[in-house]
Amino acid sequence: KKILFLTTVGFFKPFNGGSLYTKSIYEELLGCKPQALDVEIATKRILFFTNVFLKLLALSCSIFSRHPATSIFYFLIFKLRNLKLKDYDIIVADHVETALIAEGFGKNVLLIAHNIEHKLAEENIRNRFVRWLTQYEKKMKNFEEQVFKSSSEIWCISRLDLEYIKNINENVVHKPPFFKKRRGPKRSFNNKVGFIGAGSWLPNLLAVDNLLAILESMGEKRKLVIAGSGWPARITNCQIVEYLGFVENSSDFYKKIDLLIVPFEMKTGANIKIYEAISEKIPVVTYPSNALAIFANRKIAANNGIIVAEFWGDFKTIISQFEGRT
């Protein structure tokens, strides 16, 4: 089979949870030894068309279109590349926004659903007025359901997303990423709590501010190990922070920590971090929704190293109770 793999960002050197998941899917497809596996990455520049110009064009078009702005944006990019879709047997649409170009393809379309995108409307278009003007959330919900219905098969990382999608299309598979499990003895607790993610994303910044407040209030020699780019000096210069910057090999980060904190809910990035930590034999503190997104119930999650925190205040209690475990 000849496969065309459409994706939103480069993933050969993963830089976040989403690109890590994309790489694991790509490698699984590569392992099937297709006749061809061609990749089209939306971030590559096309002639004199800049991403800013195409984004403004997509926003303008979306005011009058039934399609959401982000799907129009990727449609324009792939259309300008004059892709010869008829030369392929299968199109892999990595992220639902890339699927518009495959409308009317008439063959097999495999959708990689990283998230339920209409639930992330505020992150995809942060300007409230622009979201209202383009009716982004409503249009994305309608578009997403249309893509779910028309796709030959759907792969997703979250069990909770699977249940949602199954109500629209039964051909959906829970497809977790594969990471080789670390071998070796369990480690003693060295008072090192970990957080991985980019400092340029506001929820990450707020989460680390809260974590620092918790750790500093405990009054002991606990360290917060942070991996990821874009963190401000007030964080990286903090006395209890060990800042690693961007790490090409995430194992280098997991080797330094005893406990991973994932204080976000139901997103690909959160799920990827949990899968990675488990493969590295690192316990994870996270919200119930993330535990249930990966495992069938809390008991199975607990047996796999997931510690559930119902509220922010629980993180302090869990970190205190975790001291001394091996």
Q: How is the largest sheet built, in terms of strand order?
A: 2-1-3-4-5-6
- Cα distance, first to last residue? 49 Å
Catalogue the unreliable spans.
none
How many helices? The count is 14
The residue fraction in helices comes out at 40-55%
Mean pLDDT: 86
This entry's quaternary arrangement is single chain
- Main sheet summary: 6 strands, parallel
Tell me the overall shape.
globular
DSSP summary, beta strand count: 12
The percent range for strand residues is: 15-25%
Radius of gyration: 21 Å
Sheet/helix structural class: alpha/beta
Sketch the topology as an H/E string, one letter per element.
Answer: EHEHHEEHHHEHEEHEHEHEHEHHEH
Please specify the SSE layout and strand pairing:
Elements (H helix, E strand, L loop, with lengths): L1 E6 L9 H15 L4 E6 L9 H14 L4 H12 L9 E5 L13 E6 L7 H4 L3 H7 L1 H15 L2 E4 L2 H8 L5 E3 L17 E5 L5 H16 L5 E5 L5 H4 L4 E5 L5 H4 L4 E4 L5 H12 L4 E3 L1 H7 L3 H6 L2 E3 L3 H11 L4
Parallel strand pairs: 1-2, 1-3, 3-4, 4-5, 5-6, 7-8, 7-10, 8-9, 10-11, 11-12
Describe the model:
This protein is of the alpha/beta class. It has 14 helices and twelve strands. It has helices at residues 17-31, 51-64, 69-80, 121-124, 128-134, 136-150, 159-166, 202-217, 233-236, 251-254, 268-279, 288-294, 298-303, 312-322; strands spanning 2-7, 36-41, 90-94, 108-113, 153-156, 172-174, 192-196, 223-227, 241-245, 259-262, 284-286, 306-308. The strands form two sheets. The protein has a six-stranded parallel β-sheet with strand order 2-1-3-4-5-6, with helices on both faces. Helix 1 crosses helix 11.
